[in-house]
Each structure stands twice: as C-alpha cells, then as structure tokens.
Amino acid sequence: MDAFASLAGQLLLAMPGIGDPRFEKAVIALCAHDESGAVGIGIGRTVPGLTTHGLFSQLNLDPGVAPDVPVYVGGPVEPQRGFVLHAADWSGEDTLHVGDRWSLTSTLDVLRAIARGEGPSRWLVALGYAGWGEGQLDEEMSRHGWFATTGNEALIFTEDAAARWKRAFAGAGVDTRLLSNVTGRA
C-alpha cells in the first residue's frame, strides 16, 4: 500500500522561523503534489507597485472590464512567469484543475477571458511559483516548516493578502500568538 498522501488542494502556511525570509508568513495554494515534487502559488504577498492593469499593459492586452487589483508574489521560481489561480468554474488551454477546490492557468487565454468578463468568477494573478523537488516538501513538513490546512474561496480570493496567514491559521483553530519558532526536545 502506498503511504503517500497528496496535499494538492490544501493551503500551506509557513511556520514561524521557517529559515527562508522569502517564505516568512507565506500562504501557498498547493496545486500539485505527488511523489516527484510539488508546485504551489503564493497568495500571501503582493508585488509592490504592480496591478493587473499594469500587467495587461506590459503584455499589450486591453484590460477591458477586468478590475485593477494587486498582482501576487507567486513564489521565487520563474518570477517573470504569470499564473492565474482561479475558481474551478472556468477552464481553458492547459488549465490544471485541483480537484473541485480551484484551478490554475498560465496561458493568456484566461487573461483575455477575464478582460471580456467571461473568465472565472474568482481569480488572482501571480508572478512566479513555489516548487519542491522529489520528497522535499514532505521533508520540510516533517521539520515543522509548513502547516497544511483547508482553504475556502473567500479566504483565497477575497481576504486581504496581509491577513491571509493569520486568518488561515485561525480557520484551522490555531492562535498564531501561541506559535513559536523554537522546537523542543522530549
């Protein structure tokens, strides 16, 4: 029997003292997790000074009816590459469906659909992604680097980025004031 349990469709929350400042209070929507590795999109921080209309302009796309909202720091891997994390009610070229939780699309068709008002009902745009090689995420979780929890659409798509980490922990029944970056020994 295979003991591997996929965490795709969960939110990963960085524990205090994770040891990498790029992931301090990180909230990552995990989109793929299997024996060969994991991929997720950061939704806890926005790119300073960049909004969707600015991104549309850089891509020579008319923003149409798309709202001008912040763009997220999706992660340190390929920070020049764009991703749209969105509700599972829309699908396009190369859309990755993460169960019935959410979807991820990295092709321009989703941005064009959003501009026309025909895209997903809820979405956010991120640059870059977080990636882990074979067994890396599982090992980091065993060292108390990450906490996995279920997210909901309101938390993912409407909660203020700065509040997501604390709210996601609260939704799992964890008071962040009681978290420590020091581990004990038994």
TrEMBL record:
SUPFAM superfamilies: VC0467-like (SSF143456). It comes from the Bacteria. Coiled coil: none annotated. This is UPF0301 protein CLG96_17800. One of its GO terms (cellular component) is cytosol. Pfam families: DUF179. It comes from Sphingomonas oleivorans. InterPro entries: AlgH-like (IPR003774). Belongs to the UPF0301 (AlgH) family.
